[in-house]
Each structure stands twice: as structure tokens, then as C-alpha cells.
């Protein structure tokens, strides 16, 4: 059975119209470096938007989505 790359799994997830956060990526495919995967997808020509989402501690994390 062929192993599916993190990049491909995250792209398939985004193509479903979902947004992905670092914790989603970790749970989805064990990806610890979501920003790097998104960078590579953007380099491949995908239009991905970034939204910074605040958490309860006053910090923020990125949420990525394919642009409409």
C-alpha cells in the first residue's frame, strides 16, 4: 500500500471546503509543520488564505483555507 504524503492529505482536506489548523493537521496526518506544508502548496500554485484565530489565552494560531 502506497503511503500518502502529508501534503497530499492536507490538500485533499482543504479541497473538501474545510479549514485546517495546526491541531487538525496533527490529528489528520501527524503533521507538526503545517505552515511548511501550506508554503509548499502555495508554491505549487494553490491560493490558500490564512486567518489568525485568537484562543482563550490571548495567543493566536493560523487557520488555512483554499480561497473561493
What are the defining features of this structure?
2 strands, alpha+beta, 68 residues, globular, 3 helices
Question: Can you walk through the features of this model?
Answer:
With 68 residues, this protein is α+β, with helices and mostly antiparallel strands. The protein is built from 3 helices and 2 strands. The protein has helices at residues 6-15, 22-29, 34-43, and strands at residues 48-54, 60-66. A two-stranded antiparallel ribbon has the order 1-2. Strand 1 (48-54) and strand 2 (60-66) form a beta hairpin. The mean pLDDT is 93.
Strand order of the largest sheet: 1-2
Compute the gyration radius: what is it?
12 Å
Distance between the termini: 33 Å
Q: Which percent bin holds the helix content?
A: 40-55%
- DSSP strand tally: 2
Low-confidence stretches: none
Summed over residues and divided by their number, the pLDDT gives a mean of: 93
Layout of helices and strands:
Elements lengths: L5 H10 L6 H8 L4 H10 L4 E7 L5 E7 L2
Antiparallel strand pairs: 1-2
Provide a short characterization of the protein structure:
The protein is an alpha+beta fold. 41% of the residues lie in helices and 21% in strands.
Amino acid at each position: 500500500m502506497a503511503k500518502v504524503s502529508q501534503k497530499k492529505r492536507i490538500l485533499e482536506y482543504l479541497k473538501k471546503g474545510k479549514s485546517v489548523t495546526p491541531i487538525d493537521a496533527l490529528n489528520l496526518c501527524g503533521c507538526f509543520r503545517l505552515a511548511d506544508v501550506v508554503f509548499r502548496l502555495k508554491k505549487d500554485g494553490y491560493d490558500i488564505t490564512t486567518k489568525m484565530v485568537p484562543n482563550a489565552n490571548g495567543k493566536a494560531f493560523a487557520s488555512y483555507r483554499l480561497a473561493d
